[in-house]
Specification:
By secondary structure, the protein is α/β, with parallel strands linked by helices. The chain has helices at residues 6-12, 14-27, 34-47, 58-68, 85-92, 111-116, 137-147, 199-208, 231-262, 292-301, 328-336, 348-364; strands spanning 51-55, 76-80, 97-101, 122-126, 150-154, 162-163, 166-167, 174-178, 192-196, 278-279, 285-288, 337-340. α2 (14-27) packs antiparallel against α9 and α4 runs parallel beside α5. Bound molecules: pyridoxal-5'-phosphate (PLP). Pyridoxal-5'-phosphate (PLP) is lined by residues 57-59, 83-84, 86-87, 128, 154, 156-157, 178, 180, 190, 192.
Length: 375
């Protein structure tokens, strides 16, 4: 069983996708055309903000949002140690220093740890809404407001997730999304977007993504980048955005089936966290156990593909030259987490098979090896 199944994903909506592509190509609409504008409008409406600007990755969305917030050399930007490297690379490429903090039980930024890391040099914070769960944005917004910091949301994994009925990407100065093919809203290749209510941020991202040029006047305002979301991509993403609410519901159903099947195994910690104010979308279904590596091998031997996000903390990649922030929670997470198959195409039968394997694995372990993860 593959972790995700792009062929089945395409097969299910082939007619709509094929039409979007051929229609765009037949019209010759390749760059900065109506399909992009339509998708941006629909995305902004979906997130609940005034503007969405299509770019070619979440990395670039983050980089542009930080630049728009005025982040540069001499500044510090706080984010979590448990995130994809792109979050931190975006900070590094502005010339600012990334300051990494540990996460809470739900793998997201803890407001108190964020506040403890604030210094006079702190300019912005990047809360990362990991695995389809929004951070505690009440706590994070309060700390950011108190210290006058810009909030740039890394919402790469959280399109459609909400906190107090507000969607990821609508809390901060800017929200940053990824349409990498395996995301909940996945394109044909790399893609991303900046969302914002701020017209200056929207204008900056719109210009800087395309060499800094104001297309109306032909004036170049910045040394920009070549980082557009292509029209064909936008046309396909627009089709998929219409399906996203049903796909999210499907993911939530699959998550609840995993929960039913696995909750009796005391060696596992499942990703069902407290708080009725959260609506989680399960970009990843991440379980946690001290015998992660053995479990993963067992699942592999039984035909179940899994992923690990991420195998070691970022600062252990020596060539990145990051200071070791000594984040014990992030370090244990890297040793203990495993992501189970989860997508719009995951079926109840897939869940049954995966759950069966996991149960067999734990049942076959001698009791003395059964270490309980403290909760
Ligand atoms: C949390 C997080 N931030 C940023 C990114 C970068 O997204 P992209 O690949 O679109 O640049 C990812 C991609 O996996 C991610 O998971």
């Amino acid at each position: 069983m593959p972790f995700i199944d792009p062929r089945e994903h395409y097969r299910r909506i082939k007619g709509e996708i094929d039409f979007a592509i051929t229609d765009t190509l037949a019209k010759g609409d390749l760059v900065l055309r109506q399909q992009l504008r339509d998708f941006e409008q629909h995305l902004a409406d979906f997130v609940g903000v005034k503007y969405a600007i299509g770019v070619n990755s979440c990395y670039h969305a983050l980089h542009f949002a930080l630049l728009a917030a005025g982040v540069g050399p001499g500044d510090e930007v706080i984010t979590v140690g448990h995130t994809f490297v792109a979050t931190v690379s975006a900070i590094v490429h502005t010339g600012a220093k990334p300051v990494l903090v540990d996460v809470a039980d739900d793998y997201n930024m803890a407001p108190d740890r964020f506040e403890a890391a604030v210094t006079p040099k702190t300019k912005a914070v990047i809360p990362v809404h990991l695995n389809g769960r929004v951070c505690d944005m009440d706590g994070i917004s309060a700390v950011a407001k108190k210290h006058g910091l810009a909030i740039i949301e890394d919402a790469a994994q959280a399109l459609g997730a909400t906190f107090r009925n507000k969607r990821a990407g609508s809390f901060g100065l800017a929200g940053c999304f990824s349409f990498y093919p395996f995301k909940s809203l996945g394109g044909l290749g790399d893609g991303g977007a900046v969302t914002t209510d701020d017209p200056e941020v929207a204008r900056f991202a719109t210009l800087v993504r395309f060499n800094g040029e104001d297309r109306q006047t032909g004036e170049f305002h910045y040394h920009g980048y070549t980082a557009l979301l292509d029209n064909v991509q936008a046309a396909v993403l627009d089709v998929k955005l219409r399906h996203l609410p049903e796909w999210i519901e499907h993911r939530r159903t699959i998550a609840s089936l995993y929960r039913k099947g696995l909750e009796a195994i005391e060696e596992l910690r499942l990703p069902h966290f407290s708080g009725s104010e959260y609506f989680d979308t399960y970009q990843n279904y991440v379980i946690r156990t001290e015998c992660r590596d053995e479990l993963r091998e067992y699942l592999k031997a039984n035909g179940v593909e899994t992923l690990v996000h991420w195998r070691k903390p970022m600062w252990e990649h020596k060539d990145l030259a990051l200071d070791n922030p000594r984040l014990s929670e992030t370090e244990s997470i890297c040793r203990e987490v495993i992501s189970l198959p989860m997508s719009a195409e995951t079926t109840p039968q897939h869940v049954e098979m995966t759950v069966g394997c996991i149960r067999d694995f734990f049942a076959s372990r001698p009791t003395s090896l059964r270490t309980t993860v403290a909760s």
